[in-house]
Give the backbone structure.
Amino acid sequence: MASKIPDTVISVHNDMVLRLDESILPTELEKLKLLLKDDPLTAKDIDRIKTVQKLFLCLMDKAFISYGDYEKIVPKLILVKPSLRAITDRHIKDINKYSTQSMADVTISMDKPVYQAKEGGVAFLMCSVCPKPDHIVWKKSKSAKPSELVPVDNRKYFYGIAAPTLVIKDTYKRLDEAHYQCTVMAKGKTTVGKVVQLQVTGNVSEKELD
């Protein structure tokens, strides 16, 4: 599930669309629609779209653009009317600024710096993320700078955006005792959690491990 779009981002987006609509002549809108023919506009879309507002709504419905992502439409706008660059550049800069500020509010909380588990048991690296991110990964390493991806295989390792806590089944000291770090992503931005340590007590024979 995608994160909630900040109200400030939506406001800047709407203002950009309004300014573009005020600056584009009807003949220029027709040229723009032709540049979008078949990718993604259908003939029916081209016929019914009469304003820039309706064009942008259609493009967003088709996932051709999104809040903050106008990479596919901006070159076509500039091709139709080069002076539109000033409008898009200014508003996109503001959208990126507000998106970054929003991501600064994302928090990753670990309830302790060191976790412990018995060998052959289950380890829970308790983690909470607020608000819910678009993507989450855990990494581990024997050093204090985790770099090895912990895969979600639903057999030994379990975690996800709805349940960010890392669960490790059948823990082995040789494999699982390490430093771990949670990283979340939303709208192209990344937030990194604190490095925590998992200590595994007890021993399992090499034969049993293999």
